[in-house]
Amino acid sequence: MALLEIKNLHAEIDGKEILKGIDLTVNAGEVHAIMGPNGSGKSTLCHVLGGRDGYEVTQGTITFDDHDLLEMETEERAVAGMLLGFQHPVEIPGVKNIYLLKEALNAKREAQGLDEIDTFTFMKQVRELVASMDMDDAFLHRGVNAGFSGGEKKRNEILQMLLLEPKLALLDETDSGLDIDALKVVSEGINRMRGEERGIILVTHYQRLLNYVEPDFVHVLYKGKIIKSGDKTLAHRLEAEGYQEILEEAS
């Protein structure tokens, strides 16, 4: 079943075209890795899917869970089950992590026609997830990402994902800035989200994340287009040979 279907997607920012004809289908249960040189449009694709302001789709269609994604506001995409994990998670001083998590979860529950979660159940659930991410409970009572290290911010993103259980997780360079221990913890969190009912898109530069989170498909994005797709062995080839040979083949 196609959870996400992108056809001939073109998008620009400030009048500059970045995406130049993306075609991609993600079925429920699949993990797709998107790789490519800097400036290829990987983060732009995530931002367009997430509904970030400033990005204009000029051509093409995006269908998410049988809905026209381009007709949905950013918050509608979120409550419908899409989560975007940022390459550089923003800090929100003054807003405690625990309040953000509870409000986000209740917004999702409201969209599903469910009652708000009671405090006891919420605290039990979130503390179990915090422990699984090798984080201290004290993080719950700090400002969102405020003063967090790079690794702590990425763990916090995966904590949000585990709590909200999105249908589609878009993880933009979640592995950047992580030491080996943090990479293992984050990867374990991503693997816990794998299931027949959801899809995951991983944007990464490096094979090392894919050693822990094995993708079903790997795509090479270059100059706004997917120029090659394959299975996990494509990522191994990129790690060993770099991009040049594949870019030359595509040209």
From TrEMBL:
Q: Which SMART domains match?
A: AAA
Q: Which InterPro entries match?
A: AAA+_ATPase (IPR003593), ABC_transporter-like_ATP-bd (IPR003439), ABC_transporter-like_CS (IPR017871), FeS-cluster_ATPase_SufC (IPR010230), P-loop_NTPase (IPR027417)
Sequence intervals crossing the membrane? none
**Official protein name in the record:** Fe-S cluster assembly ATPase SufC
The ABC transporter domain covers 4-248
Select a single GO molecular function from the record's annotations and give it: ATP binding
| UniProt family annotation | Belongs to the ABC transporter superfamily. Ycf16 family.
The entry's keywords: ATP-binding, Nucleotide-binding
Q: Which organism is it from?
A: Guyparkeria halophila
What PROSITE patterns does the database record attribute to this sequence? ABC_TRANSPORTER_1, ABC_TRANSPORTER_2
